[in-house]
């Protein structure tokens, strides 16, 4: 009887220890919309039941993201879905939890007459993140429309969508491929949004997601970014469940409270603009779908990338262990 009681005590103690709070939990992401619910989670104390301290760490470009993932500099990280797949295929312990961004990229121009990618032929375009998500999507859509993305356009690569936005605002370029909220911030800063009395300085042009749907005969959405967990998930089920619950809540709050959301985001990302962030929210296709549920859409996307350049995925489609 004493042995049974002792065994139960040990089991109970192990359970309690497994449920002990973490000293620190790090959430990481870029300037883009996928990260904005993360800062709300930090600010609202959403995960205070699982960690004593929760912080947000910004990554500014894909190279910084890769360093964070390889060095496990965060617990949960917002990633372009193909980058996560690439790292997974290279042996990094990374599992995709969800896809939350299905449409965030668009062309912005000073010329209101440019309505299609073909209209930009021969023109200089500021392009963020060479060989990463914006460049990839642009290239695949262009090729399906019979265009050569490297020869038919003068692509001027820059380090981030914010840099491309600044170049557009400062008239160093007339056209750019931007990700929200950079599009809406650019429209605000040039007084082009919602509309000036005189003609606006810049205009929204091609929506890359809509073009993707047309050329690949599918829905106008692309599983572009989501949240991944770094490190093995075994024994972390409760932590991941709590994160998933709170991320969904924070995304819902973000969509329902654009003004407050904009003010909160610039507290953590002062290089952005509150009004522009608020404007951007209705223009982003935001919907949390678990990685397993999104697998069909992800594999459709990945198959296209593999056919174009297998290196984008680390050689092949990720196995089932990538999708949690």
Provide the descriptors you would attach to this structure in a database record:
19% strand, 2 domains, 324 residues, 3-stranded antiparallel sheet, D-Maltodextrin-Binding Protein, domain 2, alpha/beta, 6-stranded mixed sheet
In the sheet with the most strands, the strands line up as 2-1-3-10-4-11
Helix proportion range:
40-55%
Q: What class, by secondary structure content?
A: alpha/beta
Quick check: average pLDDT?
Answer: 91
The tally of domains stands at 2
What is the strand content? 15-25%
Largest sheet: 6 strands, mixed
Distance between the amino and carboxyl termini: 42 Å
Kindly provide the name of the CATH class of the largest domain: Alpha Beta
Question: What radius of gyration results from the CA coordinates?
Answer: 21 Å
Indicate the CATH topology of the largest domain. D-Maltodextrin-Binding Protein, domain 2
Describe the global form.
globular
Number of strands: 11
- The succession of helices and strands, N to C, reads HEHEHEHEEEHEHEHEHEHHHEH
Describe the structure.
The protein is α/β, with parallel strands linked by helices and 324 residues long. It has two domains: 22-102 and 224-322, Periplasmic binding protein-like II (D-Maltodextrin-Binding Protein, domain 2, 3-Layer(aba) Sandwich); 105-215, D-Maltodextrin-Binding Protein, domain 2 (3-Layer(aba) Sandwich). The chain has helices at residues 2-18, 36-44, 62-70, 81-89, 133-144, 161-169, 182-189, 208-215, 237-256, 258-268, 274-280, 295-308; strands spanning 25-29, 54-58, 76-80, 94-103, 105-109, 124-128, 154-158, 175-179, 203-207, 225-230, 285-290. A six-stranded mixed β-sheet has the order 2-1-3-10-4-11, with helices on both faces. Strands 8-5-9 form a three-stranded antiparallel β-sheet. Helix 2 (36-44) links the parallel strand 1 and strand 2.
């Amino acid at each position: 009887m004493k042995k049974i009681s002792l065994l139960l005590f040990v089991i109970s103690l192990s359970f309690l220890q497994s449920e002990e709070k973490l000293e620190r939990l790090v959430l990481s992401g870029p300037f883009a919309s996928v990260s904005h619910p993360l800062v709300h989670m930090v600010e609202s104390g959403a995960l205070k039941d699982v960690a004593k301290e929760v912080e947000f760490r910004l990554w500014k470009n894909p190279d910084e993201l890769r360093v964070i993932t390889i060095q496990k500099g965060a617990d949960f990280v917002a990633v372009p879905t193909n980058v996560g797949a690439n790292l997974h295929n290279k042996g990094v312990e990374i599992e995709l939890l969800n896809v939350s961004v299905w449409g965030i990229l668009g062309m912005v121009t000073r010329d209101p007459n440019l309505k299609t990618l073909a209209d930009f032929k021969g023109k200089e375009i500021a392009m963020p993140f060479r060989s990463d998500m914006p460049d990839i999507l642009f290239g695949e859509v262009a090729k399906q429309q019979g265009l050569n993305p490297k020869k038919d356009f003068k692509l001027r690569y820059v380090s981030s969508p914010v840099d491309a936005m600044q170049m557009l605002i400062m008239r160093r370029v007339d056209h750019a491929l931007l990700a929200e909220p950079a599009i809406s911030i650019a429209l605000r800063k040039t007084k082009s949004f919602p509309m000036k009395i005189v003609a606006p300085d810049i205009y929204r042009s091609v929506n890359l997601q809509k073009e993707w749907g047309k050329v690949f005969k599918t829905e106008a959405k692309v599983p572009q970014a989501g949240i991944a967990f770094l490190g093995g998930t075994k024994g972390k089920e409760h932590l991941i469940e709590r994160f998933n619950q709170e991320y969904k809540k924070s995304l819902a709050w973000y969509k329902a409270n654009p003004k407050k959301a904009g003010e909160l985001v610039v507290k953590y990302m002062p290089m952005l603009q509150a009004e522009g962030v608020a404007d951007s929210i209705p223009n982003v296709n935001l919907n949390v779908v678990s990685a397993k549920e999104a697998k069909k859409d992800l594999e459709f996307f990945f198959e296209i990338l593999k056919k174009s350049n297998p290196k984008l995925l680390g050689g092949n489609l990720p196995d089932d262990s990538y999708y949690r």
